[in-house]
Amino acid sequence: MTGGEENRDSALMREWFDATGAVVMGRMMYDTGEEFWGDNPPFRTPVFVLTHRPRPALVKEGGTTFTFVTDGIHSALDQARAAAGDRNVDIAGGASTVQQYLREGLIDELQLHVVPVLLGEGLRLFEGLGAGRRNLEPVRVVDTPLATHVKYRFVK
Ligand SMILES: NC(=O)c1ccc[n+]([C@@H]2O[C@H](COP(=O)([O-])OP(=O)(O)OC[C@H]3O[C@@H](n4cnc5c(N)ncnc54)[C@H](OP(=O)(O)O)[C@@H]3O)[C@@H](O)[C@H]2O)c1
Predict the structure, then answer these.
(1) pLDDT of the chain along its 156 residues, tens only?
(2) Cα separations in angstroms, 114 against 1, 96, 119, 152, 156
(3) Ligand 1 surroundings by CB, under 6 angstroms
(4) Ligand 1 atom 25: the closest Cα is on which residue?
(5) Residue with CA nearest ligand 1 atom 33
């Protein structure tokens, strides 16, 4: 994209673009982003939106397509994997979507972007994941003025 400042966050965004071949998100994330993303959304890959309400696919500028998936998280992931080829599938959010994939053990890497803002309430990302423990291996931490980007890999 154009504009803005060139800094360490730019490098992380570039890395994300290069590595990501498809995106999965929940319908709430889609609804909150739809207007802001405009005609040329920042994904530039196929995006699979989980919902219980069927609707026709949307083709946007720049390579982004939105496909609305009504038959569950496994179907969305299968379609995203097929579309992504050798590249990663990004489970982008929101909390309900990420929690379901975490519960099923379908996430390989977890990237948290911790922003220096304290919110007193809201949805909790790590909730309802079931009992038991899964170990994570730290991969890297990148600290920028806007956020601390922490990446973990689940230990198999
Ligand atoms: N900070 C971030 O990086 C980030 C990222 C993403 C989202 N967000 C925020 O998180 C909030 C949304 O989070 P959320 O947890 O409420 O919602 P979400 O995961 O984005 O979407 C939940 C919706 O997705 C659909 N859905 C989820 N699982 C499904 C399944 N297995 N089968 C069919 N449909 C399914 C349902 O839509 P229907 O009601 O249509 O059936 C459900 O109401 C928004 O405010 C968004 O802005 C933040």
Answers:
(1) 678 888 888 899 899 999 999 999 999 999 999 999 999 999 999 999 999 999 999 999 999 999 999 999 999 999 999 999 999 999 999 999 999 999 999 999 999 999 999 999 999 999 999 888 899 999 999 999 889 999 999 998
(2) 23, 18, 12, 13, 25
(3) 25-29, 32, 50-53, 72-73, 92-97, 100, 123
(4) 51
(5) 51
